[in-house]
Specification:
Layout (H helix, E strand, L loop, with lengths): L18 H19 L6 E4 L7 H5 L17 E5 L2 E11 L2 E9 L2 H8 L1
Antiparallel strand pairs: 1-2, 2-3, 3-4
Length: 116
């Protein structure tokens, strides 16, 4: 049996670690896991509005057709990460592109509640 598998208290006995050692190893593991998560790709989307229509109406759409959405002008847009609401915001332009200025961040507690 290698030294890696042996414990301080003898074969089958748990190793006695101080609180500081436990906290230190947990903190290091947490820092490593957070660093690992920083490179995880996420899908962010902003919903401008929704519409319902019949298949017949969908087939009639052509270039220049206008689809009326349910959201009212000025109403906050929903910012979603991996299809979960994380914030609300308003449309702005930045360097000739659409952007969203966040006006309300959903609290972590509320995000957890929405999962149940």
């Amino acid at each position: 049996m290698s030294d890696e598998n042996k414990t301080e208290g003898g074969e089958g006995q748990p190793e006695n670690l101080s609180q500081e050692e436990l906290k230190g190893s947990a903190g290091a593991a947490q820092a490593q896991s957070i660093e690992f998560l920083l490179d995880v790709p996420l899908s962010l989307s902003v919903e401008l509005g929704r519409a319902k229509m019949l298949v017949n109406d969908l087939l009639q759409l052509g270039q220049g057709s206008v689809i009326e959405l349910t959201k009212i002008v000025g109403e906050p847009l929903e910012v979603m990460v991996n299809n979960k609401l994380i914030a609300r915001g308003e449309v702005v332009t930045l360097n000739d592109k659409f952007a969203v200025r966040l006006t309300d961040i959903i609290s972590p507690t509320d995000r957890l509640d929405s999962l149940t």
